[in-house]
Design goal:
The protein is built from eight helices and eight strands, in the order E-H-E-H-E-E-E-H-E-E-E-H-H-H-H-H. The chain is an alpha+beta fold. Helix 5 packs across helix 6.
């Protein structure tokens, strides 16, 4: 084997075999799927996604989400909560308590079981390569502000493809410079910017709405999207 690309996700086998004892910088998540309750779940009818940063004031380094979806042809909503833990020295928020309260406010029964798994975010502390092996997408790490994955994964692919081409041309499969390639690419610049904003936002220095406006200017995002990316209770957050 000359090259193996780990593109099998945050919990993929390639990453686990490559880093068996490594504890990555990772986000904790909880998620459930529930049938749409029209009285409370307006996301499906209004064709919108909701990012709710209100729990930041309770120490959550992340947000609650409500994403509409189809399941067996019927309208459902994916309700979830995530904490990136970018400030590892700070006490972790009680995600289950916060999430249970949110579900109760929507008249959504708390399930007996929770869907949960960690998602690594890109950091210098997380190796992304070793001889003959490259990681891309969620296996390499998402960005820690909003947790973007798909668009970043596509950019990872571009960098990895060029690294593999160069490896065959030079007969050098050490991939020692793969991390530097990522950082110098647009994907690395995007992640670096998102990391800076995450530190400001989850450190209480910036209002999530202001961070959203900076990351997704209205010139490139329809005006309604910004209001949907945060809940109407942003007035309770610092700097509002």
């Amino acid at each position: 084997m000359q090259t193996l690309i780990g593109a099998d996700g945050a919990l993929g086998m390639v990453r686990r075999k490559m880093l068996p004892l490594h504890k990555p910088c990772s986000a904790r998540t909880l998620q459930i799927l529930a049938e749409v309750n029209p009285e409370y779940d307006t996301e499906f009818a209004e064709k919108k996604l909701v990012w709710d940063f209100t729990p930041v004031k309770e120490g959550l380094q992340g947000y609650v989400w409500h994403f509409p979806c189809l399941r067996d042809g019927k309208p459902w909503v994916a309700h979830g909560i995530g904490d990136v833990g970018i400030y590892s020295e700070k006490p972790r928020a009680d995600m289950k308590r916060i999430f249970s309260r949110v579900l109760k406010s929507r008249n959504t029964p708390s399930p007996k079981t929770w869907s949960s798994h960690p998602v690594p975010w890109f950091s210098d502390k997380n190796p992304v390569s070793q001889p003959n092996v490259l990681l891309v997408g969620d296996a390499a790490g998402i960005e820690p502000a909003f947790g973007g994955g798909i668009h970043i994964a596509l950019s990872y692919g571009e960098v990895a493809a060029q690294a593999v081409i160069d490896a065959f041309q030079n007969n050098d499969f050490s991939f020692l410079d793969y991390g530097k390639r990522l950082k110098s690419h647009l994907v690395g610049e995007w992640i670096h910017n998102c990391t800076r904003l995450a530190l400001e936002m989850y450190g209480g220095k910036r209002n999530p709405l202001d961070v959203t406006r900076e990351l997704f200017p209205e010139s490139s995002v329809s005006p309604g999207v910004l209001s949907r990316m945060v809940s109407e209770v942003l007035k309770h957050l610092p700097g509002s």
